[in-house]
Design goal:
The complex is a heterodimer of chains A (about 450) and B (about 180). By secondary structure, chain A is an alpha+beta fold. Chain A is built from 14 helices and 23 strands. In chain A, strands 13, 14, 15, 16, 17, 18, 19, 20, 22 and 23 form a 10-stranded antiparallel beta sheet that branches. Chain A has a 4-stranded antiparallel beta sheet with strand order 6-5-4-7, with no helix packed on it. In chain A, strand 22 and strand 23 form a beta hairpin. In chain A, helix 3 packs across helix 14, helix 8 packs across helix 9 and helix 10 packs across helix 11. Chain A is globular, with a radius of gyration of 23 Å. The two termini of chain A are about 15 Å apart. The model of chain A has no long low-confidence stretch (mean pLDDT about 95). Chain B has about 180 residues and is of the alpha+beta class. Chain B has one domain: Nuclear Transport Factor 2, Chain: A (Roll), CATH 3.10.450.50. Chain B has a 6-stranded mixed beta sheet with strand order 2-1-6-5-4-3, sandwiched between helices. Chain B is globular, with a radius of gyration of 16 Å. The chains are: A alpha+beta (about 450), B alpha+beta (about 180). At the A-B interface, strand 14, helix 8, helix 12 and helix 13 of A face strand 2, helix 4 and strand 7 of B. Strand 14 of chain A pairs parallel with strand 7 of chain B, so a sheet runs across the interface. Bound molecules: FE2/S2 (inorganic) cluster and fe (ii) ion. Fe (ii) ion binds next to helix 7 of chain A.
């Protein structure tokens, strides 16, 4: 079938969404067209291409792109496609292209801003329509590319709001990734962890701000971490702070997550307010706060550290945990396959212990050997398969429905709840994206 | 253990030591037994293979010379290994139901060096099939063991595991060591 605007709109109701939104291949194609190949999609951070010639591959919707730094130190985002016969110009995920892109098929070369430079036996094009000045023969670039403080994005549509407007309140997550550094800069650490989820991209986003799941899903690692904490204590050793990242799951239990509010912003973004590791009171954190005071002055430093975001979802393609410097990009591969790339950042001039703490989170929660996301991944896979059943056509978002608090275009979850507000909020945004300009 | 990680990185990766047949055999038996303990999920014995300050290490990058302070796929001491066992064996470890099965083949065992104190650096190759959720995944790679000679026989000071498919993408994550 092909979906009409009306039918698409009918997939989302105030407190539930239709299972087809998660399972239907045609809907997936429409999502790529109307969301991922239209709005602003994250490409990468400038520190991934530190030196001239450095490049890094990414994907915008279904399309391969490359982020590259040219010899004049300008960062460009280009399609990873040779204008001759279509070969990908870069095939390693990351590398250095030197002074120019060299296509391995027929040796056309391009400047790093995409302009056609040369090719062997050039005279073969004499008298043809090939024109060195014609952008048709340059490595082409997405309709719009822009960056927010070094975080690069692309949009494949000429139309739509600019990046800053699109990000709106969610830009605070990027600000936090930079401003929390006493040295006022942030830098990618190593390369990313890449994991495939055998489930729909929306299931992932919904999970990230679902505060009714951690105590249940992560009970086993919570208990195991508590067990280890006790053993370490019995041995008379100091319990490493980062174990609390895990034992909190057990401490808060199934229903202790009501103190963490959620907020829904324009364009589908949303956030979870602080828990874990925001501002513990220990010597390392205190030393870090001292350095922040030194760098920014007390008032400004307090303002930066006081921002209450544990987790920000930048719709539709990112999940960011600024207090722990983790950033994840979401690349949907199919209705039931999603690639995530997880990055960790280092705050310039922050004490080593602060880096170690976020590194521990990166390892314990987000690495390929995580015992936390392992159980999430399995639940998402189970949801994906469960939704193949027509037993019910609907996915329920009823928790605290009707109690969301709207203020100036921003939605807050009901106080002291584990509200499914963010799930409703994102699906309502989804309906907007999917029906905007559709059916014409 | 940073020093031993560095030592493994610095050593000639093609070195072969001229060791006695007994030493060669002891190294092989050690590796085969380790694989058996893992495949048979004998966790107390597995943990006892490592020194008290030993590490199981799977680097995230090929040219990594340190585990400490770096992103790793695995970097686990006795504490974290114990936690992994406790978690994976917990009845509510949803992703571990049904339990996986691992099957290792370890081969190409070469003793790289024999220290004056009897410690060994041993290089080998492995293949591991994991049966999980009724599907098989394959992992393969290189082991390098720093085996410390103790009164109790050899113990692992550092085991470095270089997966050939280390960059992923990972279809699902790794819950047990390989
Ligand atoms: S396809 Fe690139 S030079 Fe021919
Ligand atoms: Fe989770």
């Amino acid at each position: 079938m092909s979906w009409t605007t009306e039918q698409l709109a009918g997939l989302v109701e105030p407190d539930r969404a239709h299972r087809k939104a998660y399972t239907d291949p045609e809907i997936f194609d429409l999502e790529m067209e109307r969301i991922f190949e239209r709005t602003w999609i994250y490409v990468g951070h400038e520190s991934q291409v530190k030196n001239p010639g450095d490049y890094y591959l990414a994907q915008v919707g279904r399309q391969p792109v490359v982020m590259v730094r040219d010899q004049q130190d300008q960062v460009h985002v280009l399609f990873n496609r040779c204008p001759h016969r279509g070969a990908q110009l870069c095939s390693a995920r990351q590398g250095n292209a030197g002074n120019h892109f060299y296509c391995s098929y027929h040796a056309w070369t391009f400047h790093l801003d995409g302009k056609l430079e040369s090719m062997p036996a050039k005279h073969g094009y004499d008298g043809t329509n090939l024109d060195f000045e014609d952008p048709e023969f340059h490595v082409s670039r997405p309709a719009r590319t822009d960056n927010y403080r070094g975080f690069w994005f692309a949009s494949l549509s000429e139309e739509g709001v600019d990046l800053k407007t699109h990000l709106g309140e969610s830009a605070a997550a990027f600000d936090q990734l930079i401003d929390r550094a006493p040295g006022k800069e942030t830098e990618i650490v190593g390369s990313c962890f890449r994991m495939i989820q055998q489930s729909n991209w929306k299931i992932f986003l919904e999970n990230q701000l679902d505060s009714s799941h951690p105590g249940v899903t992560h009970e086993s690692i919570g208990k195991a971490a508590q067990h280890l904490e006790n053993k370490i204590r019995e041995d008379g050793r100091d319990v490493p702070m980062e174990l609390a990242f895990l034992s909190d799951f057990a401490r808060l239990g199934h229903d202790g997550w009501t103190k963490f509010g959620t907020v829904g912003y324009r364009n589908g973004h949303s956030s979870l307010e602080g828990y874990m590791g925001l501002r513990p009171d220990d010597p390392d954190t205190n030393e870090y706060v001292r350095l922040m005071y030194e760098a920014y002055g007390e008032e400004k430093a307090e303002e930066i550290l006081g921002i209450n975001i544990h987790h920000m979802l930048v719709y539709p393609c990112m999940s960011i945990q600024p207090p722990l410097q983790q950033l994840r990009s979401i690349r949907p591969l199919g209705p039931d396959r999603t690639l995530t790339e997880i990055w960790h950042f280092r705050l310039k001039d922050a004490p080593e212990a602060i880096y170690r703490r976020s590194l521990a989170y990166y390892y314990l929660v987000n690495s390929p050997s995580t015992m936390v996301n392992a159980d999430d991944l399995f639940n998402w896979w189970k949801c994906q398969h469960g939704l193949e059943s027509s037993a019910s056509e609907w996915v329920s978002f009823h928790r605290n429905a009707g109690q969301d608090i709207d203020k100036d275009g921003i939605t807050h979850s009901a106080p002291e709840s584990m509200s499914e507000m963010p799930l409703r909020h994102m699906m309502h945004a989804w309906r907007e994206y999917m029906t905007a300009g559709a059916g014409d | 253990m940073a020093d031993i990680a560095q030592l493994l990185a610095d050593r000639d990766a093609l070195a072969i030591a001229d060791v006695s047949a007994d030493t060669q055999r002891a190294a092989e038996q050690f590796l085969y037994r380790q694989a058996e303990l893992l495949d048979e999920k004998q966790w107390d014995e597995w943990l006892a293979l490592f020194t008290d300050d030993g590490f199981y290490w799977m680097p995230a990058e090929e040219d990594q010379t340190e585990g400490d302070g770096q992103p790793n796929i695995f970097w686990e001491d006795q504490d974290l290994m114990l936690m992994r066992v406790a978690r994976n064996e917990h009845p509510h470890a949803h992703s571990q139901a049904p339990h996986n099965r691992l099957c290792h083949v370890v081969s190409n065992v070469l003793v790289e060096s024999e220290e004056p104190n009897g410690d060994l650096i041993v290089r080998s190759r492995f293949h591991c099939a994991e049966y999980l959720r009724y599907e098989v995944r394959n992992f393969t790679g290189k082991y390098r063991h720093y085996l410390r000679k103790t009164d109790d026989g050899f113990k692992i000071a550092v085991q470095r595991v270089d997966l050939v498919n280390r960059e992923g993408p990972y279809e699902y994550v790794l819950q047990w060591w390989l």
